[in-house]
Structure formats: C-alpha cells, structure tokens
Design a protein that fits this description.
Order of helices and strands: HHEEHHH
CATH architecture of one domain: Orthogonal Bundle
Radius of gyration: 17 Å
Helix content: 40-55%
Strand order of the largest sheet: 1-2
CATH topology of one domain: Histone, subunit A
Oligomer: single chain
Structural class: mainly alpha
Strand content: under 5%
C-alpha cells in the first residue's frame, strides 16, 4: 500500500509528536482505503452522528451495532511502517506487537480528540484546531 504523499525514503525514527503533527500521514489516513475494504456505499460516511463513541461503536441515541475493526483503528500497514522506522533494519515486529500498538495509537488519538472536542464545546467553538498555550 503506497502513500501518495511519501517518497518511500526512510527518514529515521519518528516520535509521537511528529506522528501527530505529520500532515502526510494524517492526510493519507483520511484519504486512503485499505486493500481489504469493499467498495460499497456504507464505507463512504466518516461522520460521527449523535453521541457515538468511535472506539466502542455504541450510539447512545439508537442501537446501530458495533463498528468494524477497520473503522475503529488506524490501518495496520501505516502503524507497521512507522514502527519499522524505530527499529534496526534487520529487526522484526511480531504481529501481536503491531496489533497492540495499532490499538494503543488509535485509543490515544481518540482520547486526544475527545478532550479537544470537550474543550471546544465548553468554549462554544465548532472547530478543533491547534492552539499552543
């Protein structure tokens, strides 16, 4: 799976801050589809209607069922690519380690987004943006 915004060159290890600030990774996550995703109309809506927790897939206003794993987590290929940058070239990453980091990173992003959303709601703002304080 190639990302259109990346040249394929390895730029060394990448930290959490760089990962979150990297627009090429964020934009490729938003615009990229996994190889195993089906091309059906149900996969086109990325909105979060109502009071839905994206990681739990529980909509407080109606029972729509749990979200699929591919809708809850960052793509495993993207997570593995970032992990490979942090280990020696000859190093290997176990499948369960990739899956664990995938879940942790997705939970972290969800937490940060939730906190930012709460803050925007308290400040009566509609857009989450970067504010250095």
């Amino acid at each position: 799976m190639e990302n259109s915004g990346e040249s394929g060159e390895d730029s060394g290890s990448i930290g959490t801050t760089a990962f979150l600030a990297s627009s090429s990774i964020a934009s490729s996550y938003i615009s990229m589809q996994s190889d195993d995703m089906e091309d059906d109309p149900e996969n086109t809506d990325d909105s979060n209607p109502g009071n839905c927790d994206p990681l739990q897939g529980v909509n407080m206003s109606s029972s729509s069922g749990p979200l699929r794993e591919q809708d809850r987590f960052l793509p495993i290929a993207n997570v593995a690519k970032i992990m490979k940058r942090a280990i020696p070239e000859a190093g290997k990453i176990a499948k369960d380690a990739r899956e664990c980091v995938q879940e942790c990173v997705s939970e972290f992003i969800s937490f940060i987004t939730s906190e930012a959303s709460d803050r925007c709601h308290m400040e009566k703002r509609k857009t989450i943006n970067v504010q250095c304080r």
